[in-house]
Amino acid sequence: MGLPPAQEALAQMSAQRAPGASLAQPAAKARVVILATGGTIAGAGASAANSATYQAAKVPVDKLLASVPELANVAQVRGEQVFQIASESFTDAQLLQLGKRVSALSKQADVDGIVITHGTDTLEETAYFLNLTVHTSKPVVVVGSMRPGTALSADGALNLYNAVATAASPTAGGKGVLVVMNDEIHTGRDVSKSINVRTEAFKSPWGALGMAVEGQTYWFRAPVKRHTVHSEFDIDHIDHLPQVEIAYGYGNASPTAYQAFAASGAKALIHAGTGNGSVSSAVVPALRELRAKGIHIIRSSRVVGGGFVIRNAEQPDDQYDWIVAHDLNPQKARILAALALTKTNDAQVIQRIFMDY
Ligand code: DAS
Asked: What CA–CA distances, in Å, run from 209 to 22, 158, 187, 321?
């Protein structure tokens, strides 16, 4: 009995194919560069029971890659050791150096995606900084781990596998810099380390973008704030970050920290305030004096995660010429303030920048 016409046509086409020709060549795997900077994902403990007591930044990138041979199933990977540090010590100079390397690699035709392995303590600042300054639509993924590879139920290997699978996925392009941790894919803008000892440490107040599961990415939302190619900040044209410092607000606070930071050369002060970024009455006069001397005052909040600091609420920001950090936590506000100051010293323009990014 003859085949229906369509199937007959298909049968004839495949019969014409040279013997032994495969039906379809497997797609070439994406070329992913892994930039290693240290952290727990490169950590080592004395015993498998040491999930919290260990030394970060010990395992070199080639050993890190060799410890997850499954990476080759999802991408062609190669590694570079950019730093080998615990990220609590990640300086602005190192942020600039890393950003410039990511930017240079993103311009190479033989690079389809980039993964940065990083300590978890300041991973959120690095991811946000890259999100604001690297002009590429290729996937850039930052990844860490909460347990060293030597620990029972270590999370680093699967986090790295998921990060490489995400960086190899064309669907991850154009979404800004991403953070992959604990099977979740977050935007580098929103995510922060919210718990210090659990594998589910990283949270985004407005939710993750998606998930990486068994080498596949699943997306449920996309970022709306400006990033990467839509950013007015370009790492290729930034060689210095102005000094910006953070002081914590509390009821018994004094102006000392703010005055000392100003005396050391800070161009802006991030106030990690109570509630809606509120400022103790004992501190307000000193901040107004510092503003009058040209230092920017930016109100963030101790209370982050699902809210935002509202302008002119308890503090008359218009009258004081102060700025609000919107929904950014103090450490992310510090990154954006430093970048804003590379462009302008006008408080109203800086406020627009905080609303845009
Ligand atoms: N000290 C921490 C860091 O390097 C370890 C880690 O959690 O990665 O950020």
From this structure: 37, 18, 7, 35
